[in-house]
Write a structure and sequence with these properties.
The complex is a heterodimer. By secondary structure, chain A is of the alpha+beta class. Chain A has five helices and eleven strands. The radius of gyration of chain B is 19 Å and the shape is globular. The chains are: A alpha+beta, B alpha+beta.
Chain lengths: 236, 255
């Protein structure tokens, strides 16, 4: 019995050590830079002021701002463990979207009524985000029709709608995964015929830790508040 | 001979423990019916499935949180439960003195209910499945047109604190399922498919009939009113909400 105990202890210790290791690596990634770029692309490991213009150094993202802390809170959508396929055919969990401000909407590609306008709303929001923040925002379109919206179909839809860039992600889930996710967003939907769904029109903004910060309800409503929230969230 | 007898008794005993743990289920034979709010207001077809005879009880849920501590009151994460999750309990693993082990568990969220069922190798029923079983009275599979049946449901809606009763205290219906009406409301897997909420007014596919309760009262039969109440409740819920008169039971596909 005793040797087993020892082995267990050793094992947990190893696990702990390897965890700590990872964290150290992640903090090492923090970099500061002069906002005026007085010394070109030079970066600093610590906060301070620029030697040339005396301005406070700014935390810069590399490759994206918020990959720093390892954990996420109770209220984060990264707690969901469901699996999803992207339009590129890659299998992911929501956790892998961590690090960027996330803007979610639920649609289905055969939709003729509300979805084109929801998609237009998304594009509209995207176009109003200042270009320097663009790489910190990910726009995610989740299909409520996982049966028909295969990765291929989603990819095609992305191309048709000029949403094929890196900032756009399309997700196909399992039926229960989609139901669960809709519940988190408080989106209601129902299949009313094989190719038609009724659904609520909600655009949701999550911070880089997967916590909900804003929801916009309705179609073609004023996007100002949502855009303001996205910018605030990226800046925080 | 004696040993065989002992063995038999032993097996019987173990078996009874086993069936006790795995709460009793009955087969619901599939069929077609027209729900109050269905797909295109058309017939919905239901495949055969097994349903728990009783709602999940306090005792069963207590065993669940002991086995899966992440669902204990202080540990359950906020994405999945609101503040009133298991509020009446004394502690993480203790019921309060006024809670009966055999009363239905309430104050649980949809996430918790769903997870409970999955841990038993089951799932939550869909709205259509639940309504299909619940339209039966003691004798017939579809009693929705009977006055007595509807009056019973409506009188329950007026009774306070029925969640304190124990399971099996209401009638056993045609399918041998107890307590679908008269004890607690129950979670369904796709409760969020009901578009009777504030925001759905802005939606395109609105059904104006959904918004006015008085329209339902004036409807030709009481049946719509009783069911309307259930759909309205479902429409008002969010998945992390918990209520003291909202419990659940599980179902399983028929293989």
């Amino acid at each position: 019995m005793k040797p087993i105990k020892y082995i267990l202890c050793l094992f947990t210790l190893i696990m702990l050590v390897s965890c700590a290791d990872k964290k150290a690596k992640e903090t090492a990634k923090v970099e500061y830079q002069c906002p005026m770029k007085c010394q070109g692309e030079k970066t600093f490991a610590k906060a301070g002021s620029c030697a040339v213009c005396k301005m406070d150094l700014r935390l810069i993202s590399k490759p994206s701002k918020k990959t720093l802390s390892a954990g996420f809170s109770d209220e984060s959508i990264f707690n969901l463990t469901s699996k999803w396929n992207t339009e590129e055919g890659k299998e992911i969990t929501l956790k892998e979207l961590k690090g960027k401000t996330l803007v979610f909407v639920m649609i289905y590609t055969t939709c003729k009524a509300a979805c084109p306008r929801l998609v237009a709303d998304m594009r509209n929001i995207e176009s109003k985000i200042p270009s320097e923040l663009k790489k910190d925002v990910n726009y995610v379109l989740v299909s409520i029709d996982p049966e028909n919206d295969t990765p291929n179909r989603l990819k095609q839809f992305a191309k048709e709608n000029y949403m094929d860039g890196d900032e756009w992600t399309f997700l196909q889930g399992s039926e229960s995964g989609v139901r669960e996710f809709a519940n988190v967003l408080a989106v209601k939907y129902k299949q009313i015929s094989p190719i038609d769904f009724s659904h609520s029109n909600i655009i949701s903004v999550f911070n880089s830790q997967g916590e909900l910060v804003h929801q916009q309800e309705g179609l073609g409503v004023d996007n100002k508040e949502t855009i303001k929230k996205i910018i605030e969230t990226v800046d925080n | 001979m004696k040993t065989i007898l002992r063995l038999a008794i032993c097996i019987l005993f173990i078996n009874s423990i086993y069936t006790n743990c795995q709460s009793k289920m009955v087969l619901i034979k599939g069929g077609e019916y027209i729900p109050l709010y269905g797909r295109d207001s058309m017939k919905v077809s239901i495949n055969s499935f097994h349903m728990d005879v009783y709602p999940v009880t306090n005792k069963e849920y207590l065993a669940f949180v002991k086995k899966y501590p992440k669902w204990q009151r202080s540990k359950a994460i906020k994405l999945f439960v609101d503040k009133s999750y298991l509020r009446a309990w004394k502690s993480d693993t203790l019921l309060n003195s006024n809670q009966k082990p055999n009363s239905p568990i309430t104050n649980v969220s949809w996430f918790a209910a769903k997870n409970y069922c999955e841990c038993q190798g089951k799932r939550l029923p869909t709205v259509d499945e639940w309504e299909y079983v619940a339209m039966a009275d003691q004798k017939m599979p579809d009693a929705r047109k009977l006055k007595t049946y509807n009056e019973f449901i409506l009188s329950w809606y007026e009774k306070p604190k029925t969640y304190n009763q124990t399971i099996g205290s209401t009638f056993k219906n045609y399918w041998k399922v107890y307590d679908l009406h008269g004890l607690v409301w129950e979670w369904t897997s796709d409760f969020n498919s009901v578009l009777i909420s504030g925001e759905s007014r802005k939606d395109v596919d609105t059904d104006n009939d959904l918004f006015c309760g008085s329209a339902a009262v004036n409807a030709t039969d009481l049946m719509n009113y009783a069911a309307f109440m259930r759909y309205a409740i479902r429409g008002s819920l969010k998945a992390k909400y918990t209520m003291k008169n909202l419990g659940f039971r599980c179902v399983k596909d028929d293989k």
